[in-house]
Amino acid sequence: MARFEDITKVPELNKRILYTLFFLAIYRIGVFIPTPGIDGKVLLEFFQQAQGTLLGFINMFSGGALQNFSVFALGIMPYISASIILQLLTVVVPHLEKLSKEGEMGRRKIVQYTRYGTVLLSAIQGLGISIGLENMRGPGGEMVVLNPGWSFRLMTMITLTSGTAFLMWLGEQITERGIGNGISLIIFAGIVARMPSAAANTLSLVRAGEMSIFFLLFLVALMIGVVAFIVFMELGQRRIPIQYPKRVVGRRVYGGQSSHLPLKINMAGVIPPIFASSIIIFPATVTNFIDIPWVKGIASSLNPTGLIYNLLYVVLIIFFCYFYTAIQFNPVDVADNLKKYGGFVPGIRPGKSTAEYIDKVLSRITLGGALYLAAVSVLPSILINRFNVPFFFGGTALLIVVGVALDTAQQIEAHLVTRQYEGLLKKGRIKGRRG
What we know:
Shape: globular
CATH topology: Preprotein translocase SecY subunit
Distance between the termini: 38 Å
CATH class: Mainly Alpha
Order of helices and strands: HHHHHHHHHHHEEEEHHHHHH
CATH superfamily: SecY subunit domain
């Protein structure tokens, strides 16, 4: 069993962790580099009134970059939206489907298309936000934009698009050279970075008497309970028993072992809530900055505490749970591999019947996993907003933070286990048979 105290003994793992921390530090520095042409004080006053709204929710995912209107104001969401679009098109476009089956070369081509899509979506969002900012006013009627016009719009569009493209590159570097999934870690870092200020604001309300100490304890207990539930569900598995027949070779008997096929309850991880959030955030980001009555009506209907938002959010989470699981896990391939190596599920015929059985089991546990994700993402957020907690750190944020932390910890443990096996192979001596 690998121990996390052994991390310092593995030079390659140390190097990967330092790379990850270095790239995340660059991201956090960029959050505080403002986009030119904006009155930061007026914009900050506007966002202080937007706590608990959709803008506050978007600001949470960007790690405060939207509130500062920094070069990373759009965050990594355009990249996630482009990834969703490409994955959906892979199912219906024959050319993309063919590329997805061509191995590493096809995957690189799809990644390239995703990058182009990210730049396009970022340019559209950047232009929409720049136009909306020109119509925004602070509490005292002050303009947010110092010099409105096409020069400001083009400069803002280019700046925000460049910022998102740089974040996309950072995420890819973390995945390749660091530890964990780079895109998920960037979102993770943005959420965690806002936790100290959120805790400080809550404690100041307790000192001022606007929040009771008993409610604060209830809130802490609720978060601890949700974290424990997330860990329990993320580690939960449905194990399908696998039997291998005995084979007689000369005087020796091989095989006959019993094993199992582990199916995670939540095979899609934190991807469904991230995908669902990005789908909702893309139109909502633009509509919040456009001063047209019917557009404002759409923006207000997408309030995180509203019924329409939460229903849409739950439906998208369930959809992406099934969609992403179907992309990651193919029961037909698993059944064929079992048949190839002589394995079978007791009571189920090998081949097609085994694939149908695995698919049936997978569909059932995916429904449970999807409902768990939807409940954790929606219910704590509603409770927190019902009690007017002055920060937006609900179920979605907790789910992403805990899920990404677990995934990264598992990858670190995998590196440690691999290192241990390499050490055993180097120390051990392989004895051959003497003639």
